[in-house]
Amino acid sequence: MPDRAVRIAIIGAGPSAFYAAAALIKQTDVEVRVDIFDRLFAPYGLVRYGVAPDHPRIKSVAALYEKTALDERVRFFGCVEFGKHLTLDDLRPLYDQVIFATGAQSDRNLNIPGEDLAGSMSATEFVAWYNSHPDYVNLKPNLDVEGVVVVGVGNVAMDVARILAKSYDELKETDIADHALEALKHSKVKNIYVLGRRGPAQAKFTNPEIKEFGHLELADPVVLPAELELDPDSQKAVDGHRLTRQNVEILREYAESGAGEKPRKVHFRFLVSPVEITGDGKVEHVKIERNRLVSTPDGYLNCEGLGEYETLPAGMVLRSVGYRGVPLPGAPYNEKKGTIPNDHGRVLNDDGNQLPGAYVVGWAKRGPTGVIGTNKKDAEETVELMLEDVKNLRRVGQPQDVAEFLKTRDCNPVLFDEWQKMNTAEIERGKPANRPRVKFNTVDDARGR
Predict the structure, then answer these.
(1) CA 368 remoteness from chain centre
(2) Helix segments in 302-415, DSSP class H
(3) Into how many domains does the chain fold?
(4) Rounded CA separation 205/162 (Å)
């Protein structure tokens, strides 16, 4: 083997990227040097731009990522876009191995009439807007409406419903984007409808997420008792899974409590699907169909429309029905799954053979499943295979340093020491209002331009 370290590039700087980098520098069998690239100026991906601002404890994991980034064997390059500043062909002579940690950046559609009306968007866009994502600071969702429909019953759906339901006082000491805080302060939203196409036993939200709705300052949870009735298969699921049982118990408590007197209502609806969005150039109503559950041969409980309809008044629709990766220039892509085809993390070509030196971690590897911590074991699995493959690597010669290469692409990257200064400035900006930080919206803001 050459007497230099194995050079590894990681595309993406979210949780899976940092777990992979941590696993690489923790092992002692192979000397490594790791460069992490992201098109945004700030690292940490969904920890910064996806976690709800009123859930700061989840964001504390960034301290572990920072420890990894400060290791002398690791470098961070922000504002470097794969496909523009760097391509896979560019990386080949610069690195021995490449890891794709690009997540699942796009949302699945509802595929119903009216989905393209103004006011219909993905929950991910709304989350990015209130979390100061540079791509969405100018989104301007219309909050001068009384009704909002949230399609989906996962934790992201819970997040957007909760943010819409909370008061200004409940949000003002979080790190929510200033533009979002101001807009939500003047929100006219009164009714938030959260739609699940299957029953309460199949809901994907966690116990803490659904519990929070019982303790909001301005909003009451509303649940229809009839929609909590369980078919035999759902009852088995409830009996056999403690967390599912607790979810149903919490919902039953809400149903028994009634609508309450608070000015805002969060309506949790089950066994209903949106079938059409209507309005004169913008969202005005959402037509929903009542469902029943049907067991498939493999034991999955699918939903089937009953032909019974209802119309909800709403001026905005937020869909949260799943996520998928997008194709990367020069990299294989599984259109059906929305992932990079791989064998336990080794990237596969269209012919099913391994793409030499290419690997994948996180949602780009397995699809959008699990929580932030799930990415740790997933990344470690990929790293083990990378280390196995080192002995068979066709090592590049003495490569040019990527920092020099990026100058030829008119790229001015944000290095980690510059990010630390930006991070400190954000924290200082938040102190006068007792906020954890006030985020910069763009790299130009962060650089003081």
Answers:
(1) 8
(2) 363-366, 374-389, 402-407
(3) 2
(4) 13
Check residue 2 and give its pLDDT.
53
Residues 306 and 381 in one domain: no
174-144-147 Cα angle (round to 5)? 90
Residue with tokens 């700061």: 56
- DSSP letters of 200-261? GGG----HHHHHGGGG-SSEEEEE-GGGG---HHHHHHHHH-HHHHHHHHHHHHHHHH-S-S
Q: What is the CA radius of gyration of the chain?
A: 23
Please give the Cα distance from 61 to 38 (Å, whole number): 19
Residues with Cβ within 8 Å of 82's Cβ and at least 6 positions away in sequence, in order, are 11, 37, 39, 102, 328, 329
Helices (runs of H) and strands (runs of E) counted in the chain: 17, 19
Question: What is the token pair recorded at 223?
Answer: 């649940």
CB contact at 8 A, 123 and 156: yes
Sign of CA dihedral 404, 406, 412, 417: negative
Q: CA 270 to CA 252: how far, in whole Å? A: 13
**Which residues in the chain show pLDDT less than 70?**
1-3, 397-398
The number of residues in the chain equals 449
pLDDT digit string, tens, across residues 358-398: 999 999 999 988 889 899 999 999 999 999 999 888 777 66
Among candidate residues 321, 341, 363, the one where a domain is terminated:
321
Read off the CATH number of the domain in which 435 is found: 3.40.50.720
